[in-house]
Protein backbone atom coordinates (compact mmCIF):
# COMPACT_ATOMS: atom_id res chain seq x y z
CA UNK A 1 0.00 0.00 0.00
CA UNK A 2 1.38 3.43 -0.91
CA UNK A 3 2.29 5.67 1.99
CA UNK A 4 1.26 9.31 1.71
CA UNK A 5 2.27 12.20 3.94
CA UNK A 6 -0.08 15.19 4.09
CA UNK A 7 1.78 18.12 5.67
CA UNK A 8 -0.53 20.94 6.73
CA UNK A 9 -3.27 18.43 7.44
CA UNK A 10 -5.13 20.92 9.65
CA UNK A 11 -6.09 23.17 6.71
CA UNK A 12 -9.21 22.93 4.56
CA UNK A 13 -7.58 21.24 1.56
CA UNK A 14 -5.18 19.22 3.75
CA UNK A 15 -8.01 17.74 5.79
CA UNK A 16 -10.00 16.84 2.66
CA UNK A 17 -6.90 15.25 1.13
CA UNK A 18 -6.49 13.04 4.20
CA UNK A 19 -10.11 11.95 3.93
CA UNK A 20 -9.95 11.36 0.15
CA UNK A 21 -6.68 9.44 0.34
CA UNK A 22 -7.96 7.20 3.13
CA UNK A 23 -11.12 6.49 1.13
CA UNK A 24 -8.94 5.61 -1.87
CA UNK A 25 -7.07 3.04 0.23
CA UNK A 26 -3.77 4.84 0.86
CA UNK A 27 -1.87 4.57 4.10
CA UNK A 28 -2.01 8.20 5.25
CA UNK A 29 0.32 10.05 7.63
CA UNK A 30 -0.20 13.63 8.74
CA UNK A 31 1.76 16.63 9.97
CA UNK A 32 0.23 19.74 11.50
CA UNK A 33 0.82 22.38 14.16
CA UNK A 34 -2.13 20.91 16.04
CA UNK A 35 -3.29 17.48 17.20
CA UNK A 36 -1.91 14.69 19.36
CA UNK A 37 1.40 13.13 18.34
CA UNK A 38 1.30 9.45 17.33
CA UNK A 39 3.08 7.09 14.96
CA UNK A 40 0.77 8.42 12.21
CA UNK A 41 0.69 12.10 13.18
CA UNK A 42 3.60 14.50 13.64
CA UNK A 43 2.97 17.75 15.51
CA UNK A 44 5.37 20.41 14.25
CA UNK A 45 5.48 24.00 13.04
CA UNK A 46 6.83 23.64 9.51
CA UNK A 47 7.65 27.34 9.33
CA UNK A 48 10.35 26.85 11.99
CA UNK A 49 13.79 25.46 11.10
CA UNK A 50 13.97 24.08 14.64
CA UNK A 51 11.38 21.46 13.63
CA UNK A 52 13.45 19.88 10.84
CA UNK A 53 15.19 17.22 12.94
CA UNK A 54 12.06 15.91 14.64
CA UNK A 55 10.23 15.89 11.29
CA UNK A 56 13.12 13.86 9.83
CA UNK A 57 12.77 11.27 12.59
CA UNK A 58 9.05 10.98 11.80
CA UNK A 59 9.70 10.71 8.04
CA UNK A 60 12.34 8.03 8.61
CA UNK A 61 9.66 5.83 10.17
CA UNK A 62 6.99 6.75 7.61
CA UNK A 63 9.14 6.36 4.43
CA UNK A 64 6.54 8.18 2.30
CA UNK A 65 6.00 7.37 -1.38
CA UNK A 66 4.03 10.61 -1.81
CA UNK A 67 4.28 13.99 -0.06
CA UNK A 68 1.67 16.75 -0.24
CA UNK A 69 2.74 20.03 1.38
CA UNK A 70 -0.34 22.22 1.87
CA UNK A 71 1.03 25.09 3.98
CA UNK A 72 0.19 28.61 2.88
CA UNK A 73 -1.34 31.92 3.96
CA UNK A 74 -3.26 34.68 2.17
CA UNK A 75 -4.70 36.76 5.02
CA UNK A 76 -5.09 37.05 8.77
CA UNK A 77 -7.19 39.32 10.96
CA UNK A 78 -5.11 42.42 10.17
CA UNK A 79 -3.56 41.76 6.77
CA UNK A 80 -4.70 40.59 3.37
CA UNK A 81 -3.98 40.95 -0.32
CA UNK A 82 -2.56 44.40 -1.16
CA UNK A 83 -4.07 46.46 -3.99
CA UNK A 84 -1.12 48.83 -4.42
CA UNK A 85 2.57 49.11 -3.62
CA UNK A 86 1.94 51.57 -0.78
CA UNK A 87 -0.04 48.92 1.12
CA UNK A 88 2.81 46.43 1.34
CA UNK A 89 4.04 46.09 4.92
CA UNK A 90 7.43 44.56 5.63
CA UNK A 91 5.98 42.42 8.37
CA UNK A 92 3.24 40.90 6.22
CA UNK A 93 5.53 40.32 3.25
CA UNK A 94 8.02 38.54 5.51
CA UNK A 95 5.23 36.56 7.18
CA UNK A 96 3.94 35.53 3.74
CA UNK A 97 7.42 34.28 2.86
CA UNK A 98 7.61 32.48 6.19
CA UNK A 99 4.35 30.58 5.68
CA UNK A 100 4.24 30.20 1.88
CA UNK A 101 7.90 29.24 1.33
CA UNK A 102 9.67 28.03 4.48
CA UNK A 103 7.38 25.06 5.31
CA UNK A 104 8.12 23.56 1.89
CA UNK A 105 11.86 24.20 2.33
CA UNK A 106 11.97 22.71 5.83
CA UNK A 107 9.97 19.63 4.82
CA UNK A 108 12.35 19.03 1.89
CA UNK A 109 15.32 19.51 4.24
CA UNK A 110 13.85 16.86 6.51
CA UNK A 111 13.28 14.39 3.67
CA UNK A 112 16.45 14.98 1.59
CA UNK A 113 18.89 12.89 3.70
CA UNK A 114 16.46 9.95 3.53
CA UNK A 115 16.51 9.84 -0.29
CA UNK A 116 18.88 7.72 -2.36
CA UNK A 117 19.17 6.87 -6.04
CA UNK A 118 16.56 4.12 -5.79
CA UNK A 119 13.99 6.39 -4.10
CA UNK A 120 10.86 7.16 -6.06
CA UNK A 121 8.95 9.94 -4.33
CA UNK A 122 6.12 12.06 -5.68
CA UNK A 123 6.34 15.55 -4.14
CA UNK A 124 3.44 17.99 -4.56
CA UNK A 125 3.70 21.48 -3.05
CA UNK A 126 0.43 23.39 -3.13
CA UNK A 127 1.22 26.73 -4.73
CA UNK A 128 -1.06 29.14 -6.63
CA UNK A 129 -1.58 30.24 -10.22
CA UNK A 130 -1.21 33.85 -9.08
CA UNK A 131 2.45 32.99 -8.33
CA UNK A 132 3.03 32.62 -12.08
CA UNK A 133 4.87 35.72 -13.31
CA UNK A 134 3.90 35.22 -16.96
CA UNK A 135 0.22 34.74 -16.06
CA UNK A 136 0.06 37.98 -14.04
CA UNK A 137 -2.14 40.43 -15.97
CA UNK A 138 -4.18 41.83 -13.06
CA UNK A 139 -1.50 42.85 -10.53
CA UNK A 140 -2.24 43.31 -6.81
CA UNK A 141 -1.93 40.61 -4.11
CA UNK A 142 1.77 41.54 -3.80
CA UNK A 143 2.88 39.48 -0.81
CA UNK A 144 0.95 36.36 -1.84
CA UNK A 145 2.11 36.55 -5.47
CA UNK A 146 5.75 37.22 -4.52
CA UNK A 147 5.89 34.43 -1.95
CA UNK A 148 4.21 31.89 -4.24
CA UNK A 149 6.60 32.90 -7.07
CA UNK A 150 9.46 32.23 -4.63
CA UNK A 151 7.91 28.85 -3.78
CA UNK A 152 7.68 28.04 -7.50
CA UNK A 153 11.39 28.81 -7.90
CA UNK A 154 12.18 26.64 -4.89
CA UNK A 155 10.28 23.74 -6.46
CA UNK A 156 12.10 24.22 -9.77
CA UNK A 157 15.46 24.10 -7.96
CA UNK A 158 14.46 21.11 -5.84
CA UNK A 159 13.36 19.22 -8.95
CA UNK A 160 16.77 19.80 -10.55
CA UNK A 161 18.63 18.72 -7.40
CA UNK A 162 16.55 15.59 -6.84
CA UNK A 163 16.80 14.62 -10.53
CA UNK A 164 20.39 13.67 -9.67
CA UNK A 165 19.75 12.43 -6.13
CA UNK A 166 16.64 10.32 -6.75
CA UNK A 167 16.07 10.17 -10.52
CA UNK A 168 12.76 8.28 -10.34
CA UNK A 169 11.15 11.02 -8.24
CA UNK A 170 8.73 13.65 -9.54
CA UNK A 171 8.62 17.10 -7.90
CA UNK A 172 5.90 19.61 -8.77
CA UNK A 173 4.13 22.73 -7.55
CA UNK A 174 0.38 22.66 -8.04
CA UNK A 175 -2.46 25.17 -8.14
CA UNK A 176 -5.38 23.45 -6.40
CA UNK A 177 -8.08 25.65 -7.99
CA UNK A 178 -10.13 28.20 -6.10
CA UNK A 179 -11.46 26.22 -3.18
CA UNK A 180 -13.97 26.97 -0.46
CA UNK A 181 -11.69 27.10 2.60
CA UNK A 182 -10.74 29.60 5.32
CA UNK A 183 -8.00 30.90 3.01
CA UNK A 184 -10.36 31.96 0.19
CA UNK A 185 -13.40 32.74 2.38
CA UNK A 186 -13.12 36.59 2.45
CA UNK A 187 -12.57 36.76 -1.34
CA UNK A 188 -15.31 34.52 -2.65
CA UNK A 189 -17.79 37.28 -3.62
CA UNK A 190 -16.19 38.00 -6.99
CA UNK A 191 -15.71 34.40 -8.05
CA UNK A 192 -17.63 33.42 -11.20
CA UNK A 193 -20.37 30.80 -10.88
CA UNK A 194 -19.00 27.28 -10.97
CA UNK A 195 -15.41 28.41 -10.31
CA UNK A 196 -15.39 27.86 -6.54
CA UNK A 197 -14.79 24.21 -5.75
CA UNK A 198 -15.50 22.27 -2.55
CA UNK A 199 -12.52 20.93 -0.62
CA UNK A 200 -13.69 17.40 -1.51
CA UNK A 201 -13.71 18.22 -5.26
CA UNK A 202 -10.25 19.75 -5.00
CA UNK A 203 -8.88 16.82 -3.01
CA UNK A 204 -10.17 14.26 -5.49
CA UNK A 205 -8.59 16.19 -8.39
CA UNK A 206 -5.27 16.51 -6.57
CA UNK A 207 -5.30 12.76 -5.89
CA UNK A 208 -6.10 11.98 -9.54
CA UNK A 209 -3.24 14.20 -10.77
CA UNK A 210 -0.87 12.68 -8.20
CA UNK A 211 -1.74 9.15 -9.39
CA UNK A 212 -0.97 10.08 -13.01
CA UNK A 213 2.15 12.21 -12.35
CA UNK A 214 4.73 11.64 -15.08
CA UNK A 215 8.39 12.62 -15.57
CA UNK A 216 7.21 15.18 -18.19
CA UNK A 217 5.58 17.16 -15.35
CA UNK A 218 8.73 17.14 -13.18
CA UNK A 219 9.80 20.63 -12.07
CA UNK A 220 6.62 22.27 -13.38
CA UNK A 221 3.78 24.33 -11.93
CA UNK A 222 0.59 22.35 -12.62
CA UNK A 223 -3.03 23.41 -12.81
CA UNK A 224 -5.56 21.37 -10.82
CA UNK A 225 -6.19 19.26 -13.93
CA UNK A 226 -2.49 18.44 -14.34
CA UNK A 227 -1.88 20.78 -17.29
CA UNK A 228 1.22 22.99 -17.11
CA UNK A 229 0.98 26.66 -16.06
CA UNK A 230 4.00 28.59 -17.39
CA UNK A 231 6.12 30.08 -14.61
N1 LIG B 1 -8.20 27.73 -1.13
C1 LIG B 1 -7.87 28.23 -2.30
O1 LIG B 1 -8.71 28.77 -3.04
C2 LIG B 1 -6.45 28.14 -2.79
C3 LIG B 1 -6.15 28.63 -4.08
C4 LIG B 1 -4.84 28.57 -4.52
C5 LIG B 1 -3.87 28.01 -3.73
N2 LIG B 1 -4.17 27.53 -2.48
C6 LIG B 1 -3.10 26.98 -1.66
O2 LIG B 1 -3.48 25.71 -1.15
C7 LIG B 1 -2.86 25.50 0.13
C8 LIG B 1 -3.89 25.05 1.15
O3 LIG B 1 -4.84 26.11 1.31
P1 LIG B 1 -6.24 25.95 2.10
O4 LIG B 1 -7.26 26.54 1.22
O5 LIG B 1 -6.40 24.58 2.59
O6 LIG B 1 -5.98 26.98 3.30
P2 LIG B 1 -6.17 26.85 4.89
O7 LIG B 1 -7.39 26.07 5.19
O8 LIG B 1 -6.06 28.23 5.41
O9 LIG B 1 -4.90 25.96 5.31
C9 LIG B 1 -3.66 26.62 5.51
C10 LIG B 1 -2.55 25.65 5.61
O10 LIG B 1 -1.33 26.34 5.92
C11 LIG B 1 -0.76 25.88 7.12
N3 LIG B 1 -0.35 27.06 7.89
C12 LIG B 1 -1.08 28.19 8.10
N4 LIG B 1 -0.39 29.07 8.86
C13 LIG B 1 0.79 28.47 9.14
C14 LIG B 1 1.93 28.87 9.91
N5 LIG B 1 2.00 30.08 10.52
N6 LIG B 1 2.98 28.03 9.99
C15 LIG B 1 2.93 26.81 9.38
N7 LIG B 1 1.87 26.38 8.64
C16 LIG B 1 0.81 27.21 8.52
C17 LIG B 1 -1.83 25.06 7.83
O11 LIG B 1 -1.18 23.97 8.47
P3 LIG B 1 -1.63 23.33 9.90
O12 LIG B 1 -2.07 21.94 9.59
O13 LIG B 1 -0.38 23.36 10.71
O14 LIG B 1 -2.72 24.19 10.45
C18 LIG B 1 -2.69 24.60 6.66
O15 LIG B 1 -2.14 23.44 6.06
C19 LIG B 1 -2.14 26.81 0.48
O16 LIG B 1 -0.78 26.70 0.15
C20 LIG B 1 -2.82 27.83 -0.43
O17 LIG B 1 -1.97 28.92 -0.73
C21 LIG B 1 -5.45 27.59 -1.99
UniProtKB/TrEMBL annotation:
Which Pfam family is one of this chain's hits? Answer: adh_short
Q: Which InterPro entries match?
A: Fungal_SecMetab_SDRs (IPR051468), NAD(P)-bd_dom_sf (IPR036291), SDR_fam (IPR002347)
Q: What is this protein called?
A: SDR family NAD(P)-dependent oxidoreductase
Per the UniProt record, the lineage of the source organism begins with: Bacteria, Pseudomonadati, Pseudomonadota, Gammaproteobacteria, Oceanospirillales
Amino acid sequence: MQRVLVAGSGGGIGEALVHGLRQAGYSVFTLSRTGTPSSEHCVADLSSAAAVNSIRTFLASVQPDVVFCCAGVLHDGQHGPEKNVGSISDDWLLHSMRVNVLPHVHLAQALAPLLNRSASVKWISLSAMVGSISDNRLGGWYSYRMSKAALNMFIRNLAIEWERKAPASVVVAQHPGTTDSALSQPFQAGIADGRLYTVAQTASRLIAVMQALSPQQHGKLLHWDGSVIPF
